[in-house]
Amino acid sequence: MERHTDMRSLDGERALFWSLPALILSWVLVFLFFPGFFPPLPPTLTADEVAAFYRDPANQPLIRYSLIVFNWFGIGVIVLLTLLVMQIRRMAHRTPILAYCYLGCATAGPVLFFVADLFWLLAAFRPERDPQLTLLFHDLAWITFTSPVCFLIGQCVFLALAIFLDRQPQPVFPRWVAHFNLAVAVAIAPAAFSVTTLEGPLAWDGAVSFWLRNAAIGLWLVVMTLVLGRNVLRERSAMEAAA
After folding, report:
1. Residues 178, 116: contact at Cβ < 8 Å?
2. Which site in 95, 129, 132, 149 is 20 to 30 Å from 2, CA atoms measured?
3. How confident is the model over 227-238, as pLDDT tens digits?
4. Which runs of consecutive H residues, i.e. helices, occur in the chain?
């Protein structure tokens, strides 16, 4: 009975895993279609210039529909994060505390992502409003999207720590995955300072806070999907061999 339950659990994990390629593809497509991302709007724009962006009839449908898809991406990424929590629980630790710490960070990140989308949608919802109010929603969206990287850093650090402390003969993840997560944490950390400047590499449209941060997150999604896929398929094969 227990083995049957384990098989069903692995079947569920495998089904969720195969949703990840569509999730990553949606992230790439929306990143390209949202007119505020490619290239990113600079924080030095005036209120009238920002209002004109949201009032542009060519931009309005792209803003609204791309961000609706982005909201679904924020929900869908929970699949990847939950699968990682399950992998941490399979590691040889004396306590499940690291899995709970990772879960806490994982629940906060998508919420902030959703809130940023909501502010962009609010800016586009009534484009005829006072430009200063549109600018306020616009700033709220960009700051919420760019600056609160602490939860992403926490995820990477807790996962790396869990990998380093996994003392099984065949660890769940190879140690290079821990080093990779720490490198991603270092790459995205400077984005926290995007609230301090309107220009330069640390501004929300800058080389560090926008391009490096988002490239690191995109690479993390791809790499962690691949290593997760290897684990899910390996665990399924081991269970079938034991049966």
Report:
1. no
2. 95
3. 988 887 776 555
4. 2-17, 20-33, 47-55, 60-89, 97-125, 131-146, 150-164, 175-188, 213-242
For residues 143-171, average pLDDT: 91
Residue type, 230: R
**Is pLDDT at 191 greater than 70 in this prediction?**
yes
Helix axes 2-17, 213-242, angle to 10 degrees: 150
As a whole number of angstroms, the distance between CA 60 and CA 78 comes to 28
Residue 231 contacts residue 9 (beta carbons within 8 Å): no
Q: How far, in Å, CA of 98 to CA of 77, rounded?
A: 20
Rounded distance between C-alpha atoms, residue 145 and residue 147, angstroms: 6
- In angstroms, the first-to-last Cα distance of the chain is 12
Residue 37, strand partner residues: 40
Give the pLDDT score at 172: 87
Cα separation, 232 vs 239, in Å, equals 11
Residue 9's pLDDT band (boundaries 50, 70, 90)? low
**Residue 4: band (very low, low, confident or very high) from pLDDT cuts 50, 70, 90:** very low
Instruction: Give this prediction's pTM.
Output: 0.83
Q: Nearest 5 degrees, angle CA 73-CA 78-CA 79? A: 100
